[in-house]
Amino acid sequence: xxxxxxxxxxxxxxxxxxxxxxxxxxxxxxxxxxxxxxxxxxxxxxxxxxxxxxxxxxxxxxxxxxxxxxxxxxxxxxxxxxxxxxxxxxxxxxxxxxxxxxxxxxxxxxxxxxxxxxxxxxxxxxxxxxxxxxxxxxxxxxxxxxxxxxxxxxxxxxxxxxxxxxxxxxxxxxxxxxxxxxxxxxxxxxxxxxxxxxxxxxxxxxxxxxxxxxxxxxxxxxxxxxxxxxxxxxxxxxxxxxxxxxxxxxxxxxxxxxxxxxxxxxxxxxxxxxxxxxxxxxxxxxxxxxxxxxxxxxxxxxxxxxxxxxxxxxxxxxxxxxxxxxxxxxxxxxxxxxxxxxxxxxxxxxxxxxxxxxxxxxxxxxxxxxxxxxxxxxxxxxxxxxxxxxxxxxxxxxxxxxxxxxxxxxxxxxxxxxxxxxxxxxxx
Length: 428
Ligand code: GDP
Hints:
It is found in: Mitochondrion. There is one protein chain. Helix content is 28%, strand content 29%. The chain is built from 11 helices and 23 strands. It has helices at residues 12-22, 37-47, 53-58, 65-76, 107-115, 131-142, 161-170, 221-236, 240-247, 254-266, 284-294; strands at residues 24-31, 84-89, 92-98, 118-124, 147-152, 176-178, 180-183, 191-194, 199-204, 210-215, 271-275, 304-308, 315-319, 329-338, 341-350, 352-354, 358-361, 366-369, 372-376, 381-383, 386-388, 392-396, 405-407. A hairpin with a 7-residue loop joins strand 7 (180-183) and strand 8. Helix 8 (221-236) packs across helix 9. The protein binds guanosine-5'-diphosphate. Residues 31, 33-39, 66, 152-153, 155-156, 277-280 line the site of guanosine-5'-diphosphate.
């Protein structure tokens, strides 16, 4: 209950914080090279207002905007993709985390995957599942990352989302189904029909930022109904509630479908597939809605810290509590050298970090003081007083290595977010 004392013992500030966390998504975008990850990232930042000025400055239409962004990066010194970029959409906050997905297992990839709660896997609507898509898929499975799939480039000649969905099923062995059907393909790709609401969504205006909804075009009604049944059948395989209703031939409401998709996505037994063309500004906003609706909030993700076992031999896992009243546990997942010195990207798993805090680096038992705490955006940095459990921030002037864990200095046992037996962390 926002802003009020509640019976579970949260102070009003804490209750408001926990409520805010429900509207936070820490997610990454992963893809085979050339599938459109950069373009999609740019569009996400554009639609969420982070780099709105670009088109106004350049006065061009959305097509070919990639070059504009690059020019703007150079001119204004903005970063389209840093280790973590904070942005907002509707009532939601996002931390878009860079996942170097096409690289096979390295400690850096491992850390990036660890700090995100969900991901969008981008596939090209023509090339489909490629070698790096298989790598990305394997990584997501290994780290239990819930995900959505975005089939991109539906404007390209030869694009066929249904063939790609078959590949997701056969090559990746993922239980998946489209939650949309395309309205037109190739040059005629205009929008999508949402299978949950049965609404047609058209993307209009130079940047596809005007969403016009209408009834499903008559020629697509049969396809919509059959693909809607396919979606329900795939959900019925993994969700008892939908399964029972389907068998009883009972009415399945929009709410039932949203809830089942959300539940099974978080349980990683189902992958919703969304459609569009990032370059042509189609389908990006519904994808953001999908991230909000289906991917988990930090409070729904389960994370474990590692501590030495009670008998002194080996180590044991400790479930972290996404609660800012608990002792602090935070992981430094990426270091960046900036003009002004080192910036350390941190995910706070438990407790909080405030400006001026003294924390303990559990790798070398050194105390560190936090002089400045920020959130990085595409264009600037926002100073923070505090970052709580579930949040991602960047620290200035902290001497540490990637992979280090920070706790409160008085914490009883030695904790780490990574195995205590890892040799010296790589300093990047
Ligand atoms: P990344 O390597 O995955 O980051 O892919 P990029 O975003 O750099 O895109 C690779 C190429 O595909 C670029 O030339 C983009 O302009 C193009 N591209 C990206 N999205 C689309 C799309 O939706 N349709 C078409 N036709 N081209 C696209």
